[in-house]
Amino acid sequence: MALLTTAPRGTGDVLPADSKKWQYVERKLLEIAELYGFRESRVPVFEHTELFTRSVGDTTDVVQKEMYTFTDKGDRSITLRPEGTAGTVRSVLEHGLLNEALPVKVSYVLSCYRYEKPQAGRLREFHQFGVECFGAADPTADAEVISLADDVLQTLGVRNMHLEINSIGCPTCRAKYQQALRDYFAAHSQELCGTCVGRLERNPMRILDCKSPVCSKIAADAPKILDYLCEDCKQHFETLQALLTQMQINYVVNPTIVRGLDYYTRTVFEFVSDEIGSQGTVCGGGRYDGLVEQMGGNPTPALGFAMGLERLMMLMDKQCCPFPENDTPDLYLAPMGAAAQQKAAVLAADLRREGFSVLTDVMGRSLKAQMKYADKIHADFVCVLGDSELEQGTAVLKNMKTGESVEFAVENLTDALYDAQTKLALAELEESAAAL
């Protein structure tokens, strides 16, 4: 029978063999964020389209080319979230979180959707870990958020990451810079791609982020934002650099970083790897001090970052970073006959309530096939239940690692398994100690 359909292009399945890795990484991310005072927030997969056009910016590639936008049955324009910040800001404002003690710190793990050309590390449905901090204007908040991202990468064992930082100024100093860019790119207007010609008047900084080889070559010699920073922005950036140095976080200043979204101000940063091809930016973020006000709130400084989980996992696999081993069942119950199968189902249920991982036959397999299956799933212990075991009320628990067997009363299986596990754990500790 032919397969009915396949996954849409640009999406991917997380299969059971890999789900343990994802669970481990997501758990670590949220645990580290909590150490910094960030608490998890969950926002809808889709929002009103206006949220993204107003916040992300209608001159960005995300809004112009990549958003999944549709009209719902109520004739409303709806968009699948292309990133996590806009929805988080909307949620914080809608629920009045900024009326609580500041700063407000939230973290999230979520899926995002962009219509891009699928390639390694770039999918149309992808996942992000992110943090957002509201209410803190001081550069110590910038350093703290960057430190959090650095801690995540260090904890997960990721190596050879490069932190690149820049300041793109505030609206005051950026106005002068925007004019300098217009003057520069106007002289090359005949060479720019059609998209960038449209950006020339509305937002020339977006030209710096264009992926066209021609536009990128022209942009390489464009004026640099660091030469146009006002005194406050310059001081903010210098303080951040001093803090990162004191925190022993290595960085380089890259004046070409502008980030792909319009809401950023002042600090922008990226953690980049050279080991996963062109999609080397694993984490990116910065300040967006005007976004809360732009979305209807009171003026509120804010900052955060997003980390692409597909790229992070791809890098971890490439670098052979440590992942926990997949859990194996504590016990496989192998019944022979209808009565034994029912008894095994009851015993398995009792053991699971005690916290044991227990599997038993639900396929009607022969004993030989069951033992083969128990070996394949790497069960720690196996217990065979047949008519004689039920009649006598005793059975044998076999350690599949050592081959050792112990007889026990069937009704005392829980205690027998506790004892067997304890004995196995002590033996493994002794073996580890001997190896040292």
Give a quick summary of the entry.
By secondary structure, this protein is an alpha+beta fold. It has 15 helices and 16 strands.
Structural class: alpha+beta
What's the mean pLDDT score? 92
Question: So what's the CATH class of the largest domain?
Answer: Alpha Beta
CATH superfamily of the largest domain: Bira Bifunctional Protein, Domain 2
- The name of the CATH topology of the largest domain is BirA Bifunctional Protein, domain 2
Helix content: 40-55%
Order of strands, main sheet, comes to 1-5-6-11-10-9-7-8
- Number of strand segments: 16
| Shape designation | elongated
What is the helix tally?
A: 15
Share in β-strands: 15-25%
Largest sheet: 8 strands, mixed
- The second-level CATH architecture of the largest domain is 2-Layer Sandwich
CA-atom Rg in angstroms: 28 Å
Domain count? 2
User: Whole-Å distance between the termini?
Assistant: 56 Å
* Uncertain residue ranges: none
List keywords for this structure.
alpha+beta, five-stranded mixed beta sheet, Rossmann fold, eight-stranded mixed beta sheet, 436 residues, elongated, BirA Bifunctional Protein, domain 2
What is the strand and helix layout of this fold?
Elements lengths: L15 H20 L3 E2 L5 E3 H7 L5 H6 L2 E3 L5 E4 L4 H10 L9 E10 L11 E10 L4 H17 L6 E6 L3 H16 L7 H9 L10 H7 L11 H16 L5 E2 L11 E8 L8 E7 L3 H4 L7 E7 H10 L12 E5 L2 H16 L4 E3 L6 H10 L4 E5 L1 H6 L1 E6 L5 E5 L3 H23 L1
Parallel strand pairs: 1-5, 7-8, 12-13, 12-14
Antiparallel strand pairs: 2-4, 3-4, 5-6, 6-11, 7-9, 9-10, 10-11, 14-15, 15-16
